[in-house]
UniProtKB/TrEMBL annotation:
GO terms for molecular function: methyltransferase activity. This is Methyltransferase type 11. Residues 61-156 form the Methyltransferase domain. Keywords: Methyltransferase, S-adenosyl-L-methionine, Transferase. It comes from the Bacteria. It holds the Pfam family Methyltransf_25. It comes from Chlorobium limicola. The keyword Cytoplasm does not apply.
Length: 262
């Protein structure tokens, strides 16, 4: 899914997330992501924000980088007015098909998160499963936070779910191999202070191997809370997993930040 500009001598490639998330093999590699996990995550979000106490039909939700729609669909099933946004037409088509099959109503938009068009519209914005920090420039991440702030109504909630970098460093598996159907999937991970990079090599039973890369910025608790505050958010709390356990910087696998627009 790349092309070469032979006249200039440069190899022009799509960003890793535009290529990989739009490839049909993506959902096969991550087929272990289950609905039960999404249900627990959404329940934690609604409980911690106290939105569970308000009629769902009166609330609007934006799911940024919604992918195939696990979380957006669960919110819509509960009665919320949901918009799922993603850059991948393939993943959005999958989410639409799931919604149609389950007779679930929600809207979908296809847009780069750095260019979200919404203004003062949503009661809740969620950005889940490490869907923040894709970009090489930190200014782009700050632009995303500014867009979220702009999209929320006054008093609206933003839930940002990140990897806990300390837990990751203590538990990093540098290489793993697994079989999914007729595919052999090798995942090789490398870690710096700033990023986690994973190279995924997929070999079918017949045919040549395909290789994809994921590279996501890592944020310490101090750094991401400062970024949120600088974007105008008030930090409410941090959860350490999808069950809502208290965040422990040395042991929690996740860092789910709950913040509000004043």
């Amino acid at each position: 899914m790349s092309e070469s500009d032979h006249s200039s001598g440069f190899d022009i490639r799509e960003p890793w997330f535009a290529e990989w998330f739009n490839h049909p093999l993506y959902l096969q590699v991550y087929s272990h992501r289950d609905t039960g996990e999404a249900v627990r995550c959404i329940r934690t979000i609604l409980d911690r924000t106290r939105l569970a106490d308000i009629s769902p039909s009166s609330l609007t939700v934006l799911d940024i980088a919604c992918g195939a729609g696990r979380h957006a669909l669960e919110l819509a099933r509960l009665g919320y007015s949901v918009t799922g946004n993603d850059l991948s037409p393939f993943l959005l088509d999958t989410a639409r098909s799931e919604a149609a099959a389950g007779s679930v109503e929600l809207a979908f938009t296809c847009c780069d998160m750095r260019k979200l068009p919404h203004d003062n519209r949503f009661d809740l914005v969620v950005q889940l499963f490490t869907s923040f920090g894709y970009f090489d420039k930190e200014d782009d991440d700050r632009q995303v936070l500014a867009n979220v702030h702009q999209a929320l109504i006054s008093g609206g909630w933003y839930v940002l779910d990140l990897i806990n970098p300390l837990h990751l460093k203590q538990n990093l598996v540098e290489r793993s191999c697994r079989t999914i159907g007729n595919l052999t999937v090798i995942e090789e991970r490398s870690l710096t202070d700033q990023r986690i990079t994973k190279t995924i090599t997929i070999t079918p039973e017949k045919g040549e191997p395909l290789s994809f890369t994921e590279s996501v910025a890592l944020f310490s608790e101090e750094k991401i809370t400062n970024m949120l505050r600088n974007a105008g958010f008030l930090i409410d709390s941090i959860a350490g997993d999808y069950n809502g356990s208290a965040f422990d910087s040395g042991h929690s696998p996740r860092m789910m930040l709950f913040s509000r627009k004043p």
